[in-house]
Automatic annotation (TrEMBL):
GO process terms (BP): dATP catabolic process; dGTP catabolic process; dTTP catabolic process; dUTP catabolic process; TTP catabolic process; UTP catabolic process
Entry-linked InterPro entries: NTP-PPase_MazG-like_C, NTP_PyrPHydrolase_MazG
Entry GO MF terms: nucleoside triphosphate diphosphatase activity
Name recorded for this polypeptide: Uncharacterized protein
Organism encoding this protein: Gordonibacter urolithinfaciens
Domain of life: Bacteria
């Protein structure tokens, strides 16, 4: 308890929730490093079985096979005997695996939450931008790459990326289309870093924005119904006017 809460019991200082999380990650990183350093070394699969010198291996195998035939046991060199001789040999690789820094972040988390958590943990290990301006520069770089990928991708008449409309190399078209999604993900990830540096939780921020949009849309819908019509039947300028009314209503 004391070790994991240095901002409460120790000399470390945290002025806000974001700094508390940073301290927490640093403590967890130190604990993980200690566990990995103390973990016993598990030999690789090739080291689990005693190797016989090449010159004598054949003779040894022959003697073992003869003995096994007489007793009904598995010959030492057989796969079955190897498994029996080394209990748990099939999980040796898993036992030898060290605990990774990001292993504690479930991949089932919502994407924005996952992005914030994995990047925060990486930052605790020193993998971090120096300033917020550096992060903004990364955002601009990723946006440029997204624009370039979109320009090179096959697109339908409505402007949406669609590998199916491309002529020629289908595989190249699929790759170009996939590149747009990949670059778009990079833009989102970099924007999460902006929020993290500002102390803003990306998941909470987007959830709040979704709620705000739903409230405004509900107002627009109700206003349209009150006129005996629907939003899709309104002219573009009428829809925009309702949107501005909804925004003004929330700010009042």
């Amino acid at each position: 308890m004391i070790r994991r809460h240095p901002h409460v019991f120790g000399e470390a200082r945290a002025d806000n929730a974001s700094e508390v999380l940073d301290l927490w990650d640093q403590v967890k990183l130190a604990e993980r490093s200690s566990r990995n350093a103390a973990a016993p070394t598990v030999p690789g699969a090739t080291a689990l079985r005693t190797e016989t010198a090449p010159a004598t291996r054949g003779a040894a195998a022959g003697n073992a096979s003869a003995s096994a035939a007489a007793t009904g046991a598995e010959a030492p060199g057989s796969d079955a005997a190897a498994g029996a001789a080394v209990p748990g040999a099939d999980v040796a690789g898993r036992a030898a695996r060290r605990e990774g820094l990001l292993d504690g972040v479930p991949t089932s988390f919502p994407a924005l939450m996952q992005a914030q958590k994995v990047s925060r943990k990486a930052a605790s290990a020193g993998f971090e931008w120096d300033t917020l301006d550096d992060v903004w520069e990364k955002v601009r770089e990723e946006v440029d790459e997204l624009r370039a990928a979109y320009a090179a991708a096959p697109k339908a008449a409505n402007g949406k990326v669609d590998a199916g409309v491309a002529e020629g190399d289908a595989a190249a078209a699929e790759q170009a289309a996939a590149s747009v999604e990949d670059e778009f993900g990079d833009v989102l990830f970099s924007l999460v870093q902006v929020g993290r540096h500002m102390g803003v939780d990306a998941e909470n921020a987007l959830r709040a924005t979704c709620g705000k949009f739903r409230r405004r849309w509900s107002f627009m819908e109700g206003a349209a119904w009150a006129r005996g019509t629907t939003i899709d039947a309104l002219a573009p300028d009428e829809r925009e006017a309702l949107w501005q009314q909804a925004k003004a209503r929330e700010r009042a």
